[in-house]
Design goal:
This protein has 149 residues and is mainly α. The chain contains three helices and no strands.
Length: 149
């Protein structure tokens, strides 16, 4: 029986690969979302949308970083990082919104909608490309990269 407090995970971390792919997709989708909310709410809508997309990207990077480094410590620490890291990152997003809520460039509706839509949109979009297998723990290999033997 293995000890979860001392067992560490070795090998490449798929979290970094996944978050880089999500950031690449966010870079593609962000201009459209900023343009739409900019047309509806003007410059404050565009700036609020940009800020929200930045918050979501930072959130995903923090999640991947926490999982990668905690896995090197132990499996139990990875569980702790997953559980409490989520709560801490939600608190950071909440604090970031509270910090700017009265600024001239903030429109709360596009800010909130963008935070929710971008989180869910990127996660569901990424689900299509995640392999989730032991052979390919990160993204699915492209057909040119993988040739079965």
């Amino acid at each position: 029986m293995t000890d979860a407090l001392t067992t560490t995970l070795h090998g490449p971390a798929p979290e970094g690969q996944l978050v880089r792919d999500m950031l690449r997709r966010a870079a593609w989708a962000a201009p459209a979302l900023i343009a739409v909310f900019g047309l509806i709410w003007g410059v404050p809508g565009a700036l609020s949308t940009s800020y929200a997309i930045g918050l979501v990207c930072v959130n995903f990077v923090l999640a991947a970083t926490a999982m990668t480094y905690s896995a090197r410590v132990s499996v139990a620490m990875m569980g702790v990082a997953a559980m409490f890291g989520f709560l801490i990152r939600l608190a950071i997003i909440f604090a970031a919104v509270l910090l700017v809520r009265d600024a001239w460039w903030v429109e709360l509706v596009p800010l909130g909608v963008t935070i929710i839509v971008t989180h869910l949109g990127l996660l569901f979009w990424e689900m299509k490309y995640v392999s989730a297998s032991l052979a390919f723990p990160g993204l699915k290999p492209k057909t040119q990269e993988y040739t079965p033997t």
